[in-house]
Amino acid sequence: MKVNVLNMIRFCLLVMFFTGTASFKQKDVVVAKDCSGDFKTIQEAVNSLPAMATEQRVIYIKRGVYNEKVFIDKNFITLKGEDKEATKVISSEARDIFRCSHSDDWGVATINIRGSDIDIENLSFINEYGFTAKEDITVPCANDSVTKEKRVKKDGHQMVLRSFNTTRLFVKNCIFRSLGGDPVSPWNGDDGMFYFKDCIIEGGVDLYCPRGWSLADNCQFICHSKEAAIWHDGSRNQQSKTVFFNCKFTGDDGFKLGRYHRDAQFYLLDCSFAKNMADADIYQKAAIPPNVIQWGKRVYYYNCHKEGGDYEWHKNNLPAPLGINDITAAWVYDYKWKPVPEKNIPESAMATSEKPVIVSSDYDTVAENMLLYQRSNGGWPKQFNKEKVDYRHVLLPAELSELKAGHESGIDATIDNNATTKEIKYLAKVYKHTKDKRFLDAAEKGVEYLLKAQYLNGGWPQYYPDFSSYRSEITYNDNAMINVLNVLVDILEGNNDLDVINESFLPRCTLAMQRGIGCILRTQVKQGDKLTAWCAQYDAKTLLPAKARAYELPSLSGQESVGILRFLMRFDNPEKEVVAAVQGGIEWFNKVKIVDYKFKEIASNQTPTGKDKALVPEPGNITWARFYELDTNEPFFCGRDGVKKKKLEEIEFERRMSYAWYNESPAKLVNEEYPKWVAKWIR
């Protein structure tokens, strides 16, 4: 037997020498228990990597059980398992025992992390102390200053993951299991940013307890404690938060959702709770000595439901003016990190007309998916699972189930970003081509939604029936209301394939169009006795200019006013009120235009990417600002702090790069379309 073991050791060494030596020089290495890789343990692979790096180094881990603790004190490392169910890293450690002989937590967990930019995928991490311990025990404890003993509970602190000064941690499709408290402890209250996607986390009290900024996306939490499943410490920065997208909470009978000892901030969005969860909102746990809570209770829910019926505290309560579609992965981290790419429409593209739709003669996936996404009220959402709706995406069974779950309430139905109007036009076109009445029925149901959503004063809210925050405001922003009006006029005129809409809609479309034009005329801003332009959104009751997102303050819009004027100019024999509105708007555009400058990307050694955006001299070019003061016509800018700035460079880099602060779309309207309109209708 000894000979066999020695032969195996020699064989492994030979394999590692001949197949692994070259790999040591490479960025990626392989770990395998059977010697088929570069290393037999994960720690050996981590140790082999140079201390310094500027890009990700990948350690592939083959199936097997790795009985070891992992220590990562280097940056830019990816651990990628072959299969999360079959690739397991196991240790057994009670924190109370460990700290009797160690001064800190370095080594208390199955995986211990000090490095940043760490990615972990397709692995199981288990601290099996609670699974194997038979009872509570008392152990000698040199670090105990009084009794030199420590009482160790079977369900005491048993960490599976513990991070220290880690800044960015990305975890995907992993399992973390423990029967004790604090199993997943990503701790860095100053600047820690943690992302968990498609993970299963099982443990006792505070089984997921981040400090700093964290996002759990589509994760399952299994709680074996009646005290609390989740916990957060956001006391070091008022903006830090822990956010849960589409997560599922289960556990032992009577488990409570969460708690906090210090300042914290929780957001639970589209989450589901097991029937046996206790009727107890996330609560403050008394600390000794007591902690001062600076910023009050900050626990927010949106579209969360419990099997068997919701508790009262599950109701939607997002803080104003935050809207559900403002919440993205980048928002979670205050736009300092984007762990996943976001599929948003560039705002510069929103102001342009849509490209022509080409309908396939074969099975139309886009049209079929539009039927699936349509809500019971007839409208469509613009986002699903926090990403822009992609009708070419093939829905997985779990996604289809989740989509159906939101069908009845239809709270996410909107006219923002071309939603609902886009679908109506597309489905009408498909119906003309296929004669499949399902598509016509869906298009007409969408028209019904538009008619129901209109206010009596003629305006349309951005969302219907969700009137929370700025979603209730009359919205011209990104041409939302103008898109609706153009669809109604196309129905009345029989244009753009909308002649297929049943004639019974015509009287109601006529009334809605007339009310809409009346709203446009009433909301045009006057400076003294001069008509100017329009704000991007208005209060639905007072019709006064209103604020939307923090950086979208009341202002005259150099972008949205283009679509409004273009809409008013599409009618034959315009009434004098319409003529006056158009002329006033064009005069304003001529007055505020910025000549010989262009807004574009420039090189910069002062930004993280080496690029910036700025208004730079360019002879002959004409542009317009996005926002102008309501009374002085001075351009202004605003970051996420909501404070007006006179110079673009005064706002944060992320906002400079991600928003359409200037645009040239008025040029064609002013210089080409308006003169033709004048020649035709102004005598």
* Rg measurement, Å: 30 Å
- Identify the overall geometry: elongated
Structural class category: alpha/beta
**In what order do the strands lie side by side in the largest sheet?**
1-2-5-8-13-16-18-21-24-27
Helical proportion, percent range: 25-40%
Mean pLDDT: 91
List unreliable stretches of 5+ residues. Answer: 1-26, 343-362
Largest sheet: 10 strands, parallel
N/C terminus separation? 108 Å
Strand content: 15-25%
Number of strands: 41
- Total number of helices: 16
Polypeptide structure, described:
The chain is of the alpha/beta class. The chain is built from 16 helices and 41 strands. The strands form 11 sheets. The chain has a 10-stranded parallel β-sheet, with helices on one face. Helix 9 (421-434) packs antiparallel against helix 10 (437-453) and helix 11 (480-493) packs antiparallel against helix 12. The longest helix has 19 residues, at 2-20.
Task: Sum up the structure in keywords.
single chain; about 675 residues; ten-stranded parallel β-sheet; nine-stranded parallel β-sheet; 16 helices; disordered N terminus
A few lines on this structure:
The protein contains 16 helices and 41 strands. It has 683 residues and is of the alpha/beta class.
Which helices and strands, and how do they pair?
Layout: H1 2-20, E1 29-31, H2 42-48, E2 57-61, E3 64-67, E4 70-72, E5 77-81, E6 87-91, H3 95-98, E7 111-113, E8 118-121, E9 124-127, H4 129-132, E10 137-140, E11 149-152, E12 161-163, E13 168-172, E14 175-177, E15 184-186, E16 193-197, E17 200-203, E18 213-217, E19 220-223, E20 230-231, E21 242-245, E22 248-251, E23 258-260, E24 266-269, E25 272-273, E26 283-284, E27 299-302, E28 305-306, H5 329-332, H6 347-350, H7 365-373, E29 383-384, E30 387-388, H8 397-405, H9 421-434, H10 437-453, E31 474-475, H11 480-493, H12 506-523, E32 526-527, E33 530-531, E34 537-538, E35 556-557, H13 560-568, H14 576-592, E36 594-603, E37 611-625, E38 627-628, E39 637-638, E40 644-645, H15 653-658, E41 662-663, H16 666-681
Parallel strand pairs: 1-2, 2-5, 3-6, 4-7, 5-8, 6-9, 7-12, 8-13, 9-14, 12-15, 13-16, 14-17, 16-18, 17-19, 18-21, 19-22, 20-23, 21-24, 22-25, 23-26, 24-27, 25-28
Antiparallel strand pairs: 10-11, 29-30, 31-34, 32-33, 35-38, 36-37, 37-41, 39-40
